[in-house]
């Protein structure tokens, strides 16, 4: 339930559930039962979202139908001279060195593959913040594209 039904709307749900199970294993009854009961209450009232679950299944279905594609050259590691000569890793942008820790406008999809989006966060719990962050990153992508 914590992953499938609550997911990223409240990622603490999984931690709470695991902690309650560990408490029960360590302490037994009755204290461990109290931990389990409180975890159940937490799960019952937590914000719900299956957006991560839906995205995972959609991505798996896409890959199953579409098949494998080559990793773009700029994302390939170049540990050898030959690989460097073949342009592996050429023009790679290290997101940690970019503004906002994000390589705006960068493409991580294989050549010829349309940009697809599988994850559509809800407006509940933490996913509301994730949605805001994704909107901000999309704005940065648009600004970067308009520079070109």
What does this structure look like?
This protein has 148 residues and is mostly helical. It has helices at 2-6, 12-27, 31-45, 51-66, 81-85, 126-147.
Helix/strand/pairing category: mainly alpha
Give me the count of strands. 0
Distance, first to last CA: 45 Å
Gross morphology is elongated
* Largest beta-sheet details: none
Radius of gyration over all CA atoms, rounded = 21 Å
Q: What integer is the average pLDDT?
A: 95
Low-confidence parts: none
**Helix percentage:** 40-55%
* Element-by-element helix/strand order: HHHHHH
Concise structural overview:
This protein is mainly alpha-helical and 148 residues long.
Notable characteristics:
148 residues; mainly alpha; 6 helices; elongated
Indicate the topology.
Elements: H1 2-6, H2 12-27, H3 31-45, H4 51-66, H5 81-85, H6 126-147
